[in-house]
Amino acid sequence: MLRISSLLALSLLASCGPAPLEADLLVYNARIYTVDNAFSQAAAFAVKDGRFLEVGDTEAILARYVAPRQIDADGQTLVPGLIDAHCHFYGLGLNQGVVDLVGTQSFDEVLERVRAFQAHNPSDYLYGRGWDQNDWAVKEFPDKKALDSLFPEIAVALERVDGHALLVNQKALDLGGITATTRVPGGEVVLSGGQPTGILVDSPMDLVMAQWPEPSRADQVNALLAAQAICFENGLTTVNDAGLSQGTIALIDSLQQAGALSIRVYAMVSNSPSNLEHYLARGPIKTDRLNVRAVKVYADGALGSRGAALKRPYTDQAGHYGAMITPAGDLEALAQRIAAAGYQMNTHAIGDSANIAVLRAYTRALAGLDDPRWKIEHAQIVDTADISMFGSKIIPSVQPTHATSDMYWAEERLGPDRMAGAYAYASLLEASGRVALGTDFPVERVDPIQTFYAAVTRQDRVGYPEGGFMPGQVLTREQALKGMTLWAAYSNFEEGEKGSIEAGKWADFTVLSGDLMELPAHSLKDIRIRQTYVAGEQVY
């Protein structure tokens, strides 16, 4: 009788309690890394109107809320929606319609893929991307002879994996008006025997590409949608596109407003006179899914194509220093102009000479600004004496898989003494307090899990080298996850709306197949993306 009375009393108390609050989605029984300031864990959350309503334990959330959609996560690991802090989102989409040369093991294999593509997709303009001579037995730039023989009547352009060198045939050289006497500041027309080899490094590439037909609007839309699908499949909810035109940004905005494009885009405006004139006069542009407040600038080229600007010559090419795409004086003037407009300046800098030029320009331009959050993209080879110039105003935006891709040949380019400041992510973090992490896709794979793995192990996918490449520069797991979420959001001025699972922020989150904070290091690379959510809606 006592038991019945007690149950009746509890029932009466419950019926008198507050009515459950309405939510749109409840997720419970999860292992949630919130990545808040305390890096706390939780087990459940409620979502309303696309935002996290409350985060806590399962019993409390289920007792307080009701929702038409409820997900028992069954112990799966959830993290904030992953952010790629440096990539080429639109370029990834366009690449789905060109010759894929990634992973080719020889120039002969490049030619085989190009021939096969043209046979199935005949065109007067044949484009491919992804070759890397450092992956071949003969680690030298190819020349155009075979392309001239195979394709004498059509223009062929094959872009190196880093986007900083182009192999073209004679037809493409003629289109660009390039001869043995062509000289373009910020790059090189490579010659042999006094004649163009077909290799163009950095700035001269534009002479050819300016003659290439623009993709149709349908091609552009399809490219953006294809890139979105790939990113969602890989757990990404925000992408920082490092260099977009006014037209592409407008197209992204229109697709987002129409509901066709759900991914959030932090757009870096390409540094062109027309882009600067248009955007700097208007100030930053912000919607729920688009943020336009940065200018992407190129200080130099890439290390793999020997276009990175170094203080001393390349070890494997006597007398060659690389080249500045944007000279130091122009960087200074540009920095002043961008700062005055309230925009962020994000500058590609690979070599130590380029990095110090950017650091000096930034330091002068930012002297009177309190919280500019300007970024150096890549910060790949920095003189150890210059690392201290990074700080709260200058954030390194780096790509951990570049270190594990380049480690096989980087020392050949730089020599052992310069390696201390190469891919030095832990040192850069110590100087700046934050690092933003990305992939630079399609230069590297669209794979944030590999970004995490490379950051915390300094190894490639097969576990090489044992102990890690320059192991003193590893990031902790907490630092790596912050770099892909909260710190990346901070670098975009968006830490108040994303980057962690906290009440009031957008309900962007990623469900993983394993616990990236607990699994053995060698197992991290095998984690898979189970689900991806943007604003509480499942997109993958």
List the helices and strands and how they pair.
Elements: H1 2-16, E1 21-22, E2 25-28, E3 31-33, E4 41-42, E5 44-48, E6 51-56, H2 58-64, E7 65-66, E8 69-72, E9 77-80, E10 82-87, H3 89-95, E11 99-100, H4 107-120, E12 125-131, H5 145-150, E13 155-160, E14 165-168, H6 170-176, E15 187-192, E16 195-202, H7 205-209, H8 217-233, E17 236-244, H9 246-257, E18 264-270, H10 273-282, E19 285-286, E20 290-298, H11 328-340, E21 344-349, H12 352-365, E22 374-378, E23 394-398, H13 400-406, H14 410-414, H15 425-432, E24 436-437, H16 448-457, H17 477-483, H18 486-491, E25 509-512, E26 529-534, E27 537-538
Parallel strand pairs: 1-7, 2-8, 3-9, 10-17, 11-12, 12-13, 17-18, 18-20, 20-21, 21-22, 22-23, 23-24
Antiparallel strand pairs: 2-5, 3-4, 5-6, 9-25, 13-14, 14-16, 15-16, 19-20, 25-26, 26-27
